[in-house]
Amino acid sequence: MIASVRTSLVFLSAFLMASVASTQVPGRSDTPKKPHEVQLAGASRDFNFSTAFGGLRIRWQVASSDYFGREPYYVVKESWEQAARSLSRRQFPAALRSSSFDWNLVFMDEAATARTYPFGAQDCHPAWIRPPADIFVSAFYIGTACRHGLLPEQEARNRLKGTLYHEFGHAIEYQLLGDAVKQAERYHSEGFAEWFEVQALSDHGLNQYASTIKQGARKSFVETWDPKRFTGSNEDYYRAYALIESIVKKRGLSGLLRVYTLIQRQGIPFDQAVSKELGWTTGQWMREAAQLSRQF
Ligand SMILES: [Zn+2]
Fold first, then answer.
1. Do residues 141 and 109 make contact, with C-beta atoms less than 8 angstroms apart?
2. Which of 96, 141, 160, 271 has the smallest CB count inside 10 Å?
3. Bridge partners of 50?
4. What's the rounded Cα separation, in Å, for the pair 8 and 25?
5. What is the pLDDT of residues 111-138, one digit of tens each?
6. Distance, CA 167 to ligand 1 centroid (Å)?
7. 159-198, pLDDT tens digit by residue?
8. Closest listed residue to residue 128, CA positions, set 150, 113, 147
9. How many angstroms separate the alpha carbon of residue 169 from the centre of ligand 1?
């Protein structure tokens, strides 16, 4: 999934595969397991602060500030505050809204990205998470739109926010899955992360970025799609978003949360929980999502 159209926008905003279990992160034996293990060359900063969701430690190379026009710390802090508002204005369980994570973030330049990157050279993920809350961000991939040249600083900051919302969404889904996390499949984890990203972007007034995901779903969703064969293409991210949105559209967020509760209590896969909650076969679910996508 090298740079394609989406590289420009969501590519950066979305991602990453590592959604649910750390074992899902394609690994190299020398890949640091924790953000604080990543070696940062040159001048770097290390900072801790409190958020509505627990403490957050962030490390960044001073040079990575060049991409965003300001230190990444400010963008992270603003994004976490916005994510908290997005959660609180929706009917997420109180326990979740008051969860305390132990966030650990690192921002990497080109060299550190190359040393740390757990994906193939053909990929260009701007960030990835090792649940519950370890987040690796490639300032280089975001700031250069995946090697396509330096972005304007404001654009780079907006794309960084989308990326952070997406990873935040992964952390939330991880909590929703609870002990059933081993049941997780990539399509719904990426779908939920994309869905949360769209909510937070919209809440934040960054509608054009949210629209990119929706328009991507409108153009790419076909009801013959098999989510179990999620490949990680840009289009699959868009389609996965539409799957989650179709549930919320039909039953509200409470319906989506009941799907996760079923997964937790019964240890069943996501699609079976959808069938129990909404009465949809997989085919019906795809038709619902296709119909909804045409309205985006
Ligand atoms: Zn992701």
1. no
2. 96
3. 55
4. 24
5. 999 888 887 667 788 999 999 999 999 9
6. 6
7. 999 999 999 999 999 999 998 998 899 999 999 999 999 9
8. 113
9. 8
